[in-house]
Amino acid sequence: MSALSSLARLEAVRAGVAQPLATVRHVHVSDAPLVLIPLKLAGEAAAPLAVMLGSAPDDPSLLVVPQPRNRDLRFAFAAELAKLVLNHIETSRGEVEELPPGKEGDERIRYGNAPQLLVPNRGGVSFLRLMGRSTRFRSTEGPYAVDPAVPVLGRWLTWFADRHDHPGSSLLRAMTEVLRLHWATGQSSVEDGNLAALMGWIDPPDGLDGPAAAARAEDPVACPPAGPATDPTFDNEVLAPAITAYDRSGGDPRAGDRLRALIGGQLTPTWELMWRAVGLLRAMPEGASVQRRWERDRDAFTYYHQTFGEAYPQARRDPPVRAARRLHDLERAQDAYEAQRAFDDPLVMAEHRLAGQAFGGPVTECDPARLDETGKRPKLRPLLRVRTEDPVRLDIGTTVCNAARPALKGRIVEIGDGGVLLELTGGMGRKLTPEPGAVPMVGDRVCFTSLSEGSFGAAKFPDREDTPWTHGGPPEEYVPTDEDAEEDWS
């Protein structure tokens, strides 16, 4: 926890309401996201109990498994869920955009939109990930055949779960994570995992402050858990008798309707909280780099959708080269994401200024026309002195960039009582005189940072066939086996 977020938490306790950690919204929020609230049977790893889902606050769909231990009912539930989720995926593509040809002259396209899935918390993400693994290898033929849509759903859920791991992606987001990115509460990070308590601090009901609203959220009757686990008292006193009554009735629809009504009552409060949270996020202005990250999401969605029929289901474990490449891509994405958020938002940049990785203040000296004539040809190298009271923990020679214009780069020449002396090295044009407005003048307030969207470039990895012996050598061509399709649902 940084000093600034700690201060915001203390201020939240004093004021009785959550404090902002951002001035702009750092995630994309679709016009019609698919909100999913999954529930599972207590004590079971991946036995689905119900899910409430929909793309409009006044039009939820409720799917229930009246006996989660019954395999046929579980996969019938998966088939119903698949139809709704896959319909959302197909209707969220938008118009096709034609892009400039790639390096090899290949034609490229990008869908104008992409599906967005929102779940209440990280537990919901984990449940979708496990459900994807449990369904993507299912056979559509033979004695245990499932609906053809079930393995398709499993592959898509696995893909969404993988994109959730990608820093900055908005395709699958947990609402508690998104809210904590923008607000600080006066409770612990563990308590922030409770959506009702978190929303109690951010948007308390009339007549209550944050602590009182969060305390009310601890009441499982007034605020049922947001899943995927249910409240133990509800399980023992309400759910278990209802499932038993359904079993004894031999699957009587009336018993199923009673069970459906009980579970719907557990999910409806979370459904309302999710859409309240969506409204709060939409009210915030969007960060400048959000749309660029959403374009990458759309690129990833377009590619996967276009190649879906040509590939096998995702393997349980990545081969060595693919795993190394994925880890490298995640590290690069994290590096770029942190820089983009800081460039977009002065409150986020303040965190880096307190940490000594950025500094800001007025320009006290400026030599915009200075030339470096030590080489064969003169180079434009203006000098800039910035007076700052920030704790600068950067070394002489460190490359920094302007937070307002990241293309404007410089090198730290001197750090002293008078501030930081910079030699500007790029982003001023190609002539020996800077372009108008490119170099800050005396009196301008500036902020420079060592953060960079591309602090390290893409690495080169061997082809699959050249996997070194230290990592097992070239792996065999992946083909799903019966072992992959083993029953995962308890």
Architecture overview:
This protein is α+β, with helices and mostly antiparallel strands. It has two domains: about 5-315, no CATH class; about 345-450, Elongation Factor Tu (Ef-tu), domain 3. The protein is about 40% helix and about 15% strand. The chain has twelve helices and 17 strands. It has helices spanning about 5-15, 70-90, 120-135, 150-165, 175-180, 195-200, 210-215, 230-250, 255-280, 290-305, 320-345, 345-355; strands spanning about 20, 35-40, 50-55, 60-65, 95-100, 110, 115-120, 170-175, 185, 360-365, 370, 380, 385, 400, 410-415, 420-425, 445-450. The protein has a six-stranded antiparallel beta barrel with strand order 10-13-16-15-14-17. The chain has a five-stranded mixed sheet with strand order 4-3-2-7-8, sandwiched between helices. Strands 1-9 form a two-stranded antiparallel ribbon. Strand 11 and strand 12 (about 380) form a beta hairpin. The chain is globular.
Give the % helix. 25-40%
Radius of gyration: 27 Å
Q: Report the portion of residues in β strands.
A: 15-25%
Total discrete domains: 2
What's the tally of helices? 12
The spatial strand order of the largest sheet comes to 10-13-16-15-14-17
- Protein structure class: alpha+beta
Stretches with pLDDT under 50, minimum 5 residues: none
Mean pLDDT: 89
Main sheet: strands, sense, barrel = 6 strands, antiparallel, barrel
Query: What is the element string, with H for helices and E for strands?
Result: HEEEEHEEEHHEHEHHHHHHHEEEEEEEE
Give the N-to-C terminal Cα separation: 38 Å
Using the alpha-carbon principal axes, give the shape. globular
Number of strands: 17
Region (Disordered): 456-490
Biased composition (Acidic residues): 479-490
